[in-house]
Amino acid sequence: MIKTNRISKIFRVHVKEPGLYGSVKSLFSRNWIEKNAVHDVTISIGEGEIVGLVGANGAGKTTLVKMLSGIISPSSGSATVLGYNPWDRHNDFRRQIALIMGQKAQLWWDLPAEDCFILLKEIYRIPENTYNENLAYLTETLNVKDQLNIQIRRLSLGERMKMELIAALLHDPRVVFLDEPTIGLDLTAQRSIRRFLLNYRQKNRPAMIVTSHYMEDIEQLCKRIIILRHGSVVYDGELSGVSRGFADHRIISVTFNDDNAAAGLKIPERLGTVMTSSQGIVEIKVRRESIAEAASFILKRKGVNDLTIKEEDIGNIIESIIRES
Amino acid sequence: MAVHGWVTKVFSTEIRKLVTYRFDFWMQFTVAVFAHVSVAFFLWKAVFDYNNVTVMRGYTFHGLMLYYIMVPMVERMIFGAGLGMVAREIYDGSLTKYLIYPVSFFRYKYAQHVANSLIFIAQLFAALLIFRAIFGMPAESAMNAGSIAMGIAAIFFSGLLCFFINSSIELIAFWADNVWTLLVMVRFCVSLLGGVMIPLAFFPEKWEAVLKYLPFSYLASFPIQCIMGRITLIEWAEGLIITGAWAGVFMIIMSFMWDRGRYRYTGVGI
Amino acid sequence: MSRYVRLYIYFLRFSFSKAMEFRLDFYFRIVMDIIFYGINIGFYKLVFNHTGLLGGWNMDQMMIFISGYLIIDAINMTVFANNLWMISEYINKGELDYYLIRPVSPLFFLSVRDFAANSFLNLIMAGGILTWSIMSYPEKIGWYMVLFFIVMIILGTLLRYFVRMIFIIPSFWAQSGQGLEMIFFTLNRFIERPDRIFTGPLRIILTTALPFSIMASFPARILLENFDMLLLFHFLAVFLLFYFIVIRFWRKGLKAYSSASS
Questions:
Q1: pLDDT (tens digit, 9 = 90+) per residue, A142-176?
Q2: Measured between CB atoms, does B54 come within 8 Å of chain C?
Q3: Is B184 within 8 Å of chain C by CB?
Q4: Is B203 in contact with C46 (Cβ distance < 8 A)?
Q5: Which residue of chain B is at minimal alpha-carbon distance from A152?
Q6: Which residue has the higher pLDDT, B123 or A88?
């Protein structure tokens, strides 16, 4: 459904020296540097799959999404989405995709949401029945029926994002790109959008690519993730596989009879480090190969009530992969 | 007004903006002067040729061209740069940032306005010198250091008047969404009744007498007449008094509206 | 094609219902345009106090020319103006993204989406001025000639739109296209003067490369003077040329957008 073959994007960025002198100088000669936004990315995403695209700021997520949706063209490499070359921007291609960018509004600010939707209905040639059904389903599940006649610019950020989602999904797209769909929203709004997306996916099963800064979005929505670092793919696989591939630590959590015993616990540096210690519970980060040794070391202490070994939090693992330079 | 640190800051920022980020603006302004003058040149050439005379209403063709060259520059000095800026700030909510600055909003805006004008004085002089070098001074011109000083003084009075008029109008934005139409109306009125399109001397005499007491001519024609030495000292004093009186009227309107409007301000989209 | 017509009907509908919301703005605009018409007619009245002919026309003929360019202005204000203001800003801020993913022409959408219903009345007023100036014209003008004049004025409006676009499209490459757009507005005043007062190289430029002088003047000359085939041919040739330039240039711009933006 989505296939890329060594797709790359290089930008020329104009660097200006600071201050007055710099701006005058830049009128006459400019220094350009080349920036590899996306580098040799080869991925393949199947029908109905939902994939999280993760990376730090500037890792190339948005650029990749924009290439796949046809907004920008790559410097090299090729891609097919739904059998089309995206940046040919064929009408049949554009009718089957949707793009939602949390940081950019697609709806016209001066119109009420419903008017925007009617325009989209015309643009995408959505049949009357489908339009009514979809609109009813979407407004119902997102709970924005009462806001349909209010100018977009007067809606709250959360309501606006919901309208953006409706606008993008009215035409039953087979591929949906979601770029930071929950950015800037409060927790309630984030949660309801996440819930909606899960619900929508079960019902319609489009292929989805989601990028987000919030690990919660990714963890709840995606089975598979692709991690980008400096434009290159560093991981592509199951979300749960991340810990197997990358987590070289585990967490041992120990419960003591009393606080004093907990506070008195000293771990040799070779085995691991204490992360938190409070109310008799101590969490220790231990290297994978030292787990057995560390566990038996701890069990020999006095006052140990309970001991569990946990995987490190996936969010933290991904975070550390992204940050690594 | 005491020269606070922020005043210098505003000046240097405005000047920087004009010289660097607005490089395109300078080019645009040159084209504007060129278009304005060439339209006038060909129009009046046709009129002078038709009548086959050398002087009309006290203007030689030569003098008329000098008038038209000064018009866009003087107008620019008086009107400043930010047409509709305050209104936009009210509309999109960015007015908030000024409300929390520890300086008076209007002093801040006026400092911006004056800074913008100052740059154009240099340009006006340059244009006058170039005109003199290439075409010489027109026969009827009585331009000298004194008349130029009178003109500059008039420009500052007019700038203040314009600032109060525009601010009063922009503050309507507290109540109505689009006030740029009103600002444009003022520009339209000034362009005909203020002598931008055609010097007031070409109006019927009765009209000229009435226009003298309206604010429009003080936003374009009057300072130019001063610079060109077509105004006596008494007429000059009279003109400044009229300008000042109108400025006072609009200042009162402005502060009244500001007091009323500020409480209505909701800061959309904060 | 019919989809575009239907879309346009929606634009009209939304715009009229929006205009009802901003009642005050509606009146402001009417007053503004009345003043605009007043100063234009007033200016020529003043000039004709001091001359009998301008650019080969007397005041009666001038009135028809004036109503021609007022109609150009009114159509532009209702159909295009609100939209064209925004395009270069959209380009510079990268907000064309959403227009590119839709199965509809971005140029169409960006150029005519926001119809200014609150300027619509001005179109009627400008039409009224035209009717009045034709009625009070000393000679009788056949209705087919008036119709022909109106068609040419509409083409003149489109030509103005093409030229305007040529001043907007460079925003795809420049960091800020605002200055260039302002240049367009200063040159715009050449539309409002009869073409024949301009002579020499400026005249050549104004009738070819920057065809401001032909948008309103040529239709008026064809209506008021002996029918000149060459003049009509000149007008249509420039019109078609600019049409093709805009289409090509816009495509080039979009290409630059998709290879340069991030």
A1: 999 999 999 888 899 899 999 999 999 999 999 99
A2: no
A3: yes
A4: yes
A5: B269
A6: A88
B226: tokens are 């001063």
Strand A232-238 to strand A224-229: parallel, antiparallel, or no bridges (unpaired)? antiparallel
> Residue B99: which domain range?
5-264
C181-229 pLDDT per residue, tens: 888 998 999 999 999 999 999 999 999 999 999 999 999 999 999 889 9
The verdict on ipTM greater than 0.95 is no
- Contact partners, residue C72, CB within 8 Å, separation at least 6: C153, C156, C157, C160, C191, C215, C216
Enclosing H/E stretch for B49: helix B23-51
More reliable by pLDDT, C128 or B105: C128
Contact yes or no for A110 and C18 at CB 8 A: yes
CB contact under 8 A, A23 and B269: no
Is B23 at the interface with chain A, CB within 8 A?
A: yes
- The mean pLDDT of B169-192, rounded to a whole number, is 86
Chains that touch C (3 or more CB pairs under 8 A): A, B
Q: Angle at Cα A265 formed by Cα A262 and Cα A269, nearest 5°?
A: 145
Local structure of residue A40 (DSSP, 8 states): E
Nearest-angstrom CA–CA distance, A196 and A214: 16
pLDDT surpassing 90 at residue A289: no
Residue holding tokens 């991925």? A43
Is A226 strand, coil or helix? strand
Residue of A nearest to C261 (CA): A72
Domain A247-323 CATH superfamily: VC0802-like (3.30.2130.10)
B270 in a structural domain: no
Provide the pLDDT for residue C10. 92
**Nearest CA distance, B211 vs chain C (angstrom):** 15
For domain A2-243, give the fold. Rossmann fold (3.40.50)
Q: Which residues of chain B from 87 to 116 reach within 8 Å of chain A, CB to CB?
A: none
Residue ranges of chain A assigned to CATH 3.30.2130.10:
247-323
Could you tell me if B25 lies within 8 Å of chain C, comparing CB atoms? yes
Q: What's the alpha-carbon Rg for chain C, to the nearest Å?
A: 19
Residues of C in contact with A92 (CB under 8 A): 103
Which tokens belong to B16? 């920087």
User: Around C129, how many Cα atoms within 13 Å sit in the side-chain half-sphere?
Assistant: 26
Residue B79 lies in a domain: yes
Q: Three-class SS of residue A214? A: coil
Query: Is B269 a domain residue?
Result: no
